[in-house]
Amino acid sequence: MTETATVPTYVVIGGGQAGGETAIELRKLGFAGRIVIIGEETALPYRRPPLSKAYLAGGVAEDTLYVMQRAGLEKAAIEFRGGVRVEQIDREAKQLKLSDGSLLAYDKLALTTGGRARELKIPGADRPNVLALRTIADVERIRARAQAGQRAVIIGGGFIGLEVAATLIKLGLKVTVLEGLPRVLARVTVPEISAFFERVHREAGVDLRTGVQIVSFEYEPHANAAVTHIHLSDHSRVEADFIVVGIGVIPNTELAEGAGLVVDNGIVVDDCTRTSDPDIVAAGDCSNHPNEFLGRRVRLESVQNAMEQARAAARTLIGKPQPYKMVPWFWSDQYDLKLQMVGISTGFDQLVIRGDLGARAFAAFYLHEGHMIAADTVSRPLDFMLAKKLVAARMRVDAAQLADEAVPLKSLLPAA
User: Fold this and answer.
1) Whole-model pTM above 0.85?
2) Which residues 6+ apart lie within 8 Å of 268 measured at CB?
3) Which of 18, 45, 129, 348 would bridge 284 by S-S if both were Cys, CB 3.0 to 4.6 A apart?
4) How many CA atoms lie within 13 A of 361 on its CB side?
5) Range of the domain at 51
6) Is 186 domain-assigned?
7) What is the enclosing helix (H) or strand (E) of 141?
8) Would 328 be classed as within a structural domain?
């Protein structure tokens, strides 16, 4: 069965934050045609950041994750089709082939396909107690095993791995984190910040091991046997009741590739989110966009990027494009700490610490030739808000004043 468009039909493929925001923004901008969101998951479009924290801990209900509740979607006349997959985009016919056998015509298309958890390439990684954390269903599988006293092994010392570790240790589990690099958060911050978070996790009771490589999983040979131990390159053997793999995300670009769109570490878009097809935009984790602040192309895995880029995509779809300009920023909640980061520190030539690294609140600023290009703050929300302005302006700052807490950070901002 083919659904033909009697009114302008804009279809959003992907039921995450970017997909939901794109649809909502279209209505806010006054688009009066048909809007359809297609999601492979049955849940309404939802926010992923709480999955590894409050939702995993059981502190919030599923519906609190939704970008918009069902009643709101219905009021806005936004159709949501969950549990169905787009198999093919026919750009010439402007038609989608869906996994339920139906065809859906479109006038404009938004690709917000996000990413999927990177899989561990080792025999036994498909065993039932080796789990990922990317979706609501993933969290439900972890929660079913996350009983006090259970031995959880987390592979990966990035944001997801450390957030899961902090959550599970508070639930009373015995937690081990295995990181192959010499330090945690090695791809996003400096050794000083890594050392701080390593100390925090160890003090909380996490068995955190860096610079270790997994050699093999140990499990019984019969079908569906669980992994019981992990063998490491240092000849140690770690016991596990279950394993959570958090080693990164792979962008979902296969649909775009199959449609002949340009793909290079994400779906390639211009500064208004247009793909190589003028009737198709892309936003969120799956998109590779030119970033004016960084002076290069980048694919960002960030909820802020997903939201802001989705809004830019909506503007482009209705014919009112505005270049997408955003200073990248990120955050991570671990225990009582909030790590907030703005900018990208690659290329810095001076690090300035404001506050005491031995305490649980401080800021780290990254300078290049005297200009602030990035900042990391730990439990200093005001410093972070001011740092966002300093980084966005690439302010030239005096390092001594920046480090001196007697000098108000606000005084370093440019005069209004």
Assistant:
1) yes
2) 261, 262, 275, 276, 288, 297
3) 18
4) 8
5) 2-116+249-317
6) yes
7) helix 136-145
8) no
